[in-house]
Amino acid sequence: MSPSPDGWQAVAIAAEIGKTPRRILLAGLPVVLFRSGQTIAALHDRCPHRHVELSKGRVENGEIECSYHGWRFNATGACTTIPGLTGAVPSYRVPPLKTVVKEGVVFVARGDPEGQPYLHCAEGQKIILKLAGSSTRSTLVDTAENILDATHTHFTHKGLLRGLSSERQRVRVDVSGGPGWVEACYTGEERQHGLISRLLEGTRVKTIGRFRHPGIAELEYWGAKGLVLATTFHLRQAAENQVDGIGCLIGPRGGLLDHIKSFAFRPMFRIALEQDRRVLTSASRNAAYWPEASPIVGPLDFLRRSIEAIVTGAMPPAANSPETFYIEL
Ligand code: FES
Ligand SMILES: [Fe+2]
């Protein structure tokens, strides 16, 4: 497992950036993404002339045109055109950001990272990959924890990820970690009875929930013959109360996602996301009324403290003291 942060941040699905530019927030910095030739360009979303948002303009021949006086900037941020000017264009520039498109996902970096970004847990394998974007009113820690938290599924996703009965199974949970990551491995849970599980799975051998720096939450479902299904979510705090995510849904080629069932899976995946969004939004709204109150980290919240440590760049407690728990799930 690569422990070090690579400096890249997944910010958009490339296919969703068509003719119109897209404004995103990257750690509070407005950035405009636009299509330029075969690639996606990223510039500070501010025209250097009168500071209008470039994303309010349009894209012409791979260059972005400001909506105020029509100045154009290319993918490197250099000004190429000032309408009405008869002489040479001065060397004005908008700061660019490094971008890379990997398997349909646009990554942006504020610095100059070496190497390729990490996209998902099954890289290099023969897989089916589906992408979905989401936006939730929440914090990065709350959202990541929600994705990885097994205990809420009985309530928030009753019938979808879990059965309608309150029956539980005794499950072993091994929590471990290292620099920049923490994971919980669940074993002993042979089958879940929710609709999604029924459609997609046979016997389950283990489930892993993992968090990686800077904001990657991933779930892996392992069957007797290997990985059955996995999700990797790239999360970022796009604004004070908003977490944007790019979700990768991964299944082995020839496996269940490859099957007609995947048509049914996507809408159900969306419903589950909506159910989570509802509880996260409720928590976020309520937090505003009790700004000093910190949430309880309960005995089943195995990953919370480690996630909190990782997002601040600290060593997660799970790295120094791996633990095993037995719970009813
Ligand atoms: S403000 Fe952008 S061209 Fe004038
Ligand atoms: Fe959930």
TrEMBL record:
Q: Name one Pfam family in it.
A: Rieske
Q: Which GO terms describe its molecular function?
A: 2 iron, 2 sulfur cluster binding; metal ion binding; oxidoreductase activity
UniProt keyword list: 2Fe-2S, Iron, Iron-sulfur, Metal-binding, Oxidoreductase
Residues forming the Rieske domain are 8-108
Output the Gene3D superfamilies linked to this UniProt entry. Answer: Rieske [2Fe-2S] iron-sulphur domain
Which region is the signal sequence? none
The protein depicted here goes by the name (2Fe-2S)-binding protein
